[in-house]
Write a structure and sequence with these properties.
The chain is of the alpha+beta class and 922 residues long. The protein has 3 domains: 29-154, Immunoglobulin-like (Sandwich); 228-363 and 610-910, no CATH class; 393-455 and 473-591, no CATH class. It contains 28 helices and 19 strands. The strands form 3 sheets. Strands 10-11-12-13-19-14-18-15-17-16 form a 10-stranded mixed beta sheet, with helices on both faces. A hairpin with a 4-residue loop joins strand 6 and strand 7 (112-122). Helix 7 (230-254) packs across helix 16 (611-640).
Length: 922
Amino acid sequence: MEMKAGEQEDFLAGDAAGAEVPIPRQPPVEFSLACRDLTVATPERRPSTAVHVALVESQECSPGAYSCTEVVQGTRDPLFLTGVTFPPGHPICEETRVKLTVYDLKNPSSETRNILGYTTFSVGDLLKSKEQQLTLSLRTSDGTSTVGAVVVTRLKMGEMEDGEADHIAADVQGQKCTLLCESVHGTTSEKDNSPLMNAVFENPVCKVYRFQTVDNDWMTVREQMTECTLSFSIPRQLLALYVQEDMGSIEELKNLGELSPHWDNLRKEVIAHYGQVISSYQETLGELTKLTGPSFKPSCCKGQKYLEFVPINLHTQRMHVTCPRKADAFYDVITVGAPAAHFQGFKNGGLQRLLSRYETEKKNFSTAYQCIYFSPGDTSKAREVLANIGQLQPLILVLADRLLEAAQHGCLDPLKEALQTLSDKTEQFVHALKDELVKTALLALHAARPGYVSRRGPAVCNNAAGGAGAETPPRQDSPMQPQAQDSIPHRSEYDEEEWDRVWANVAKSLNCIIAMVDRLQDHSENNNVGAPATETPTEAQMEMPQAGTMPPVPTSTPTAATGKAGSTGEWQEKLYPLVITLKDCVAEVVDHATKSMAFVLLQEAACSIPQGLLLKQRRDVVFSQALAALTCGFVMKLYAGLEDKGFLQQLHTVGLVAQFESLLSTYSEEIGMLEDMEVGISDLQRVTFRITEAESQDPAHLQPVVSGRRDHYTVEVPLPHETFEALPDEIREGKPLQVYPVLFNVGINEQQTIAERFGDISLQERINQKNFEILDGYYKSLSDKVPLECLPCSQTQTDLKELLETLGQNVVTKKRKNVEILWLAGTICRRLNGIRFTSCKSAKDRTSMSVTLEQCALLRDEHHLNKDYFIRALDCMRREGCRIENVQKNIRCRKYAFNMLQLMAFPKCYRPPEGTYGRVDS
């Protein structure tokens, strides 16, 4: 079903007032249904029945459609597995009346139905009944005949009978509950309705079921699917950061100074393209700011330009399981369309192929213009240096002012503490910026100045290129020591001592400050009775910075002294000119380093205009979608594990694995999507998370905040005061939290059949092998640093090491549509306390098949689902569950976008039940 542009805009615009759903504190009302002694017109025929559930708002109003059970065939006493739940926010009270209509589907495949009868009841009647159960007479439409009975039984998810809590507490004492378990105290509803959850997740859709276990007990299962406000807030923040960074790049290029005509023209061209990108991003940001509708981008809008930074169909799905005399458990998965640049298209492939082609063009450009070739590692390093400059220079200036402030008060201890901090940050500044790449880039920049004539001819540039790729000489013992002079390729046109001189001045100015503090301390101690005399600093130590060699930094620190000495302002007066000199010397280093790194980035941008900047835009788009999904998953995982000490220890000690499952084929356009997705997921390695304390519990103060540049982003996740204070010290102190993204792909549709028989699946094989190595490395690191007892346990007997070995064998095995790779990777991720994602092109059809299959597999493996109920449970979830509601939300049609020919190519367990699919636009 194709939507027109106007309809798509209306779909997203929505009603701002209706987008926010108030969530009450009381648990939702949920009940199951069964029928008895149904009477049909043809007695010898056994009916196929379903129950339609609606609310009767008032006597004057007609019933409003609400939900429907699955179809049960061949019995007059059907027991329905699909129950009814009134989700949080639905206007339910004791007076609310519910109408139940029982249908007889003579031909389920054609959905031809006859009404057998109906009945009504009030919510208050159900809640007040002693057995929490009602048996209602089913009457014909005219009310004259009884055609059976309907049994309504209230379901109590997360609520236990007397004595069950103590029993469960004893069972789980000293060990982890099955996978991610609910706390024994409190209900899931209380957690789902917390201010944290309501700030980020909204518009829940709930479905409830009951299934039989192998020991003939009944488990209750609830699905809850929600939208995530981060779908739009993360892209908006990233777009603002992109604009800010590109504006800074323009200023850096302008500050390069005078260049030769060739390089000046390239600079103007690059600046012009930067301006176009900035204008486009600002326009997109403005459009996103106007949106007030749902908090997700439907699949029918994936080709919209102003929505290209927004992830497709991002939703969370949680399965909550209640079993008799066992602790509740829940299982989360994030569903999202494959991060890809759909608006830009895939005619020339995706990011992985385009980046490889781009590097070849850069090398050809460098050869043609006889200039230094800077590798992707060099350009990444250049961005890192610029980021370090932006972080460390302001910090050094603040610390220098703090030193003067301590000197003004004339107290030694604060003065020495301020000096030590300043010295440490200055040395960190040296380590971060004194890189061989900066020196090489300075030479290249000098060669781009007007009037430069190489006395050695083109071969000089080739030597420089060799220098750029050469190994950096080892550092001296002290970070302030100069590197050997012969580490710079000889240039008679260039002052080869200039770069070392600016560093020598930083060292000298810092030495002067240290020596002056020593002198002030000596003066203070000599004025105290009985104070030991110390050696007065020499004139050499007090020598002001000038051209020459760099003296070593004194390794001794001032001896401890307390008390006040000297008149107020005397010490500040002596230190002030030395501090100003240090600031000037640091500024000179920054000027050289900034210009050299800006030139590296200029050459990168100039190598392939406009392809290079268009490629960057594509990467920005894909990364934005991937980061929004990752942040959603991280927040959901964090909220679920706030009371789990083992999880929190794992989080700050090693980090979390984020496993992306992809069902894309390696054929036609989808191979381009997979190439985009691979790079986007890999780029998430540049992201760290940090937990902060929120100003209040206001939803606006609980939204994650993104900061940084393209080379590294930090996502700050605010928590309320009480929650924040309960975290481990390492997390509260702002330790960066790592996430290890891994991607596994197995195509399952008819296009993958073509690829396997006539095409190329090497991309899928390479992705799976590469990411298995990352996952295996994470497990080994985790095993070394965190007790494996902290990880979730499982009802299955297979240990993690064995699962990883089996996965390793599968990723190298030549087998068509080897979906076992996905099952193993998903199981390992859950056992590692990781974050699970499932994707296809739109996260709507194939994703629905995968999510429902995984949920039923978890019920079978972890909660002993009766094998006779496995297929029924799968059909219930696919026919009436959250995933068909997701389809409805996306394309306003309750049909999966499959046809019979396509489904013949699917693995059997990924095929939907009859009547739930049809050829609609996906």
